[in-house]
Amino acid sequence: MKRKAEIKVEVKIKKQRNCRHNHGVNWYEAEVLIKLKGCPSVIECFGGQFTTNENGEKVYNLFLEYASGGSLDHLIKNSNGCGLPESAVRWYTKSILEGVKHIHQCDYVHCDLTLENILLVPTTTSCGSTSLVAKRADYGLAKRTKEKVGGSGCRGSPMYLSPEALLDKLQD
């Protein structure tokens, strides 16, 4: 008898009032993730749906690949001040750069690449062992490469922005 495979997902929920282009942030993020589909270094999106929360507010639920390894930020903070071994840094860096390359080839810029937005997902290596691969997540601030940033603010997390982006509010 065949058993059905179980897929664990994370559900990202945002209120509909957080809008971008008359769509919820999660709806926009779903559109971006659909266009980036197929890269093993980008978190997978399984779809989404509109629902109403207990307060009657419309929300968009985004179903994402479950990252059981947590975030890269969490992994580093739990290293007891020792940091990560050089081999792990090389492994995660390679994965991060493969994802960034794919995102750019699809004509997008992430705009919020932080340690918190790099999730660790288990994968089986060619020799049969399991390791964690770093995948980019949180595409709510992503933009097309030719798209001009609207408004007076910058995109991204302030701790990770360059000084000129913070001081001059300039971003390409």
UniProtKB/TrEMBL annotation:
GO biological process: signal transduction
Gene Ontology molecular function terms on file: ATP binding; protein kinase activity
SMART domains linked: S_TKc
Domain Protein kinase: residue ranges: 1-172
Domain of life: Eukaryota
Pfam families tied to this protein: Pkinase (PF00069)
Annotated protein name in UniProt: Protein kinase domain-containing protein
